[in-house]
């Protein structure tokens, strides 16, 4: 997530019944996967932006 907010992520976890400590442990891993996938998409599509 670009520009994600920790309090929003914790609120989402709370709404899903995930304890805050578990969210704090999981969020860095989830963010790393999202950034890696976004970079792969950008490389595959020739750079930033949406592909038609």
Number of strands: 0
Average residue-wise pLDDT: 81
Give a short account of the largest sheet: none
Helix content: 55-70%
Uncertain residue ranges: none
Q: What structural class do helix, strand and pairing data support?
A: mainly alpha
Would you list the SSEs in sequence order as H and E? HH
Supply the number of helical segments.
Answer: 2
Query: Hey, roughly how much beta strand do the residues contain?
Result: under 5%
Gross morphology: elongated
Q: How far do the termini sit from each other?
A: 22 Å
Q: From the alpha-carbon coordinates, what is the Rg to the nearest angstrom?
A: 14 Å
Summarize it.
This protein is mainly alpha-helical and about 50 residues long.
If you had to describe this structure to a student in words, what would you say it looks like?
The structure is a single chain. The protein is mainly α. It is built from two helices and no strands. The model has no long low-confidence stretch (mean pLDDT 81).
Fold blueprint:
Blueprint: H1 6-15, H2 20-44
Helix pairs in contact: 1-2
Q: Main attributes?
A:
52 residues; mainly alpha; 2 helices; 67% helix; 0% strand; elongated
């Amino acid at each position: 997530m670009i520009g994600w907010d920790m309090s929003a992520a914790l609120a989402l976890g709370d709404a899903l019944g995930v304890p805050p400590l578990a969210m704090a442990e999981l969020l860095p891993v989830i963010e790393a996967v999202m950034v890696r996938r976004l970079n792969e998409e950008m490389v595959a599509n020739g750079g930033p932006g949406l592909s038609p």
